[in-house]
Amino acid sequence: MALRESLEEFLKSVRGVTCYQDRIRIYAPTCYGECIDAVNRLNEKVSKLLGGSTVYDAEGCWVNPRGETECEPVRVIESAYRCIDPETARGVVEAIAEYGVEAKQQALAVEQGSFYIASTSEVIEKIKELKFKLPY
Fold first, then answer.
1. How far apart are CA 89 and CA 65, in angstroms?
2. How many whole angstroms separate alpha carbon 66 and alpha carbon 131?
3. Which of 17, 20, 53, 114 is exposed most, by the fewest CB atoms within 10 A?
4. Please, which residues bridge with residue 107 across strands?
């Protein structure tokens, strides 16, 4: 039996254990410290919505249009969850979008199974669409 299956079988046998089947990671640039308050607000909102988070510092790098590698400090906000309702999910998306606007980010990076990079303005537009269509 593989390690993962063995570990999962053991942990499921422990009394009082809770299994979180899903995890989200949000990669929030800190703007070299200038938008750390926005990052902290994002973490606070995500923690309240999903019941907690783990936060750590990292460095995000990409290749700019000139072919040069650029890097900047980011704070990774990671939270495990299971079976959340649409209202909570919407709250997480809105918190990410609010951070993007407040921190003046052109794009947002989120890992939810797959890794997504989305234009902040496109995310805002989609949220407006969903609010119009959904009754909650």
1. 34
2. 38
3. 114
4. 119
Return d(Cα 64, Cα 71) in angstroms, integer.
10
Query: Do 53 and 80 touch, CB atoms closer than 8 A?
Result: no
| Residues linked to residue 63 through DSSP beta bridges, in sequence order | 69
Q: What is the pLDDT of residues 65-115, one digit of tens each?
A: 999 999 999 999 999 998 888 889 889 999 999 999 999 999 999 999 899
Cα–Cα distances in angstroms (integers) from residue 44 to residues 2, 6, 23, in the given order: 37, 34, 17
Q: Where are the alpha helices (DSSP H) in the chain?
A: 3-13, 36-50, 86-102, 120-133
* Averaged pLDDT for residues 110-123: 92
Tabulate helix, strand, coil % of the chain (nearest 5): 45, 30, 25
Distance, in Å, from the CA atom of 102 to the CA atom of 124, rounded to the nearest integer, reads 12
